[in-house]
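User: Can you predict the 3D structure for this chain?
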Amino acid sequence: MCREVGERRPSAYNPRSMRKTALLRAALVVIAAAAPALAYERVEIRNKDVVLGQITDDLATHEYLIDVPRDAVLSLSLPKQKKSRLQGSMGLFRLDYRGESLLLIGKRKIQQARLPTVFARYRAIVQGVNGSTGTYVLKPKIKVQKKYKIIGRRSDLSPPGQIVFGALPGYAVQVKITWKGPDPVTIASFTAPDGSDMTSAVAGRQKKSSFRQKGYRTTQVGDHRIVLDIPPSANQWALSVVQKGRSVGRLLALREAQVAPPELDLLVAGGPLPLIVVKDEVGAGNEVVLTANNTTPRVIAVLGGDPQESSLIALEGGSTPARYLFLADDTHSALITVGSRNAGRRILSLDVDPIVAPGGDGKSTFRDLVYDASNRLVGWTETRTFDASGNTHTLVISDILSAGGAYTYTVLHRRPDGTTRRYDALPFQ
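Assistant: Here is the predicted structure, written as C-alpha cells:
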C-alpha cells in the first residue's frame, strides 16, 4: 500500500470546513488514567449457587448479576480458603452502579440493609484487597418473605383487591380467601412475572365463606400477582398467600476461563467513549481508533507516535458529506466514507479505507451504529483488518452505560479463527 498521504489530500474547497481537534498526547499516561477494571462475561448467579472464581493480575475485578424479589434479603459470603492468598472484598451495586446499603456480618459476609420494595437486579462485585490474587468461593443466599396477607371491607373507597409478592423458582404456593357475605370472593387472575397464568393441578376447596387452593408452583424469579373478583355483597374479605420451598443451587466453575489472559485492552477516552485495543496487533485501527459522533465521524484517539495536532476534513460540501479525510501530522491518516444515515442524519455505517499508521496500515468498517432516545451512541459493530498480520477482528460493542459518574460497556470479540470471547469494562480502578 502506498504510504504517501499527499496523494490523498483533497483540494481545499472551503477552508472553514477543516476542524482542529486536540490529540491524545503522552498517550500511555492518558490510557493508564482512563483504564477501567476488566472483567470477562458478567455471569448471572442465583440463590444457593456456589461460584468458584479466581482473581488474577490481569482480571482483578469480577462482576456477577443477581435478581432479588421484592421483600427478600440478599446476602453474599466469601468463605475463607486455606490455600488461597486472596484477601477478598465484596460490594453490591444497583444497575447504575449506585452503591447498595449493606450490613457487614463478620469479615466475609455482607447483607442488604434494606429490603427491596420492588423486584431488582443487582451487581455483585468481588475484588482482591491490596492487589492480592487467588481463588475464592462466592455463595449468594436469598431469603424470601413467605407469608403475605391483605384485608378489605366494603366501606373501603378503593378496596385493595390484589397481592403482589416476590418469589423464587421452585416454591409451592398456597392461596386462601375468606369473606363475609352471601356471594364468594374469587380469584380473577394469578400471573407470573412474565404475565403468564399460574395454574394448579390440585382442585380448590371451597366452603361457605372461604376458599383454599394449593398446587401452584413458581418457575420464575420476580413479582407474582393475584387479583380478586370482589362482589358488591362482600362486607369483608381477606387474602393470604403462603409460599414454601428450597432453591437448588448450581456449581459454577469459572476459574479456568478467568485465568486465561485477555486479548483486548478496554479503556475509556474523553466523551466518554470506549477505547479498545486488540493485543498482539499493530497499526491500523489500533492506532487510529474511530467511531461516529451522531452526524460526523469521530476519532476517539490516535495512539503510537507523538502527533501534535489533527484535522478532520470534509471532502464534500453540504450538511451531510459522504467522505472525510483524517490527518494527524505526517504520521496518521484515514479516508472515511459514510455508508448510510438515518432520517435524523445520524451515521449508521462507515467504511475507513485505508488507515495509514506508523505501526502498519489496514482498514476498518463500522455497522449497526445504535443511538438511544437522547441520541447518545450506545453501540456498534466494528471490524479491524491489519495488513501487518493479515488478520481481521470483529468487535461488537454494546451495553454502553453512563450514569451517576460510572461508565461501562461490553465487547464481544470475534477472533480471526471465528471463536468469540466477551469482555466487560467496569467502572472500577
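Residues 5-34+260-426 form one domain. The chain has three domains: 5-34+260-426, 47-143, 147-244.
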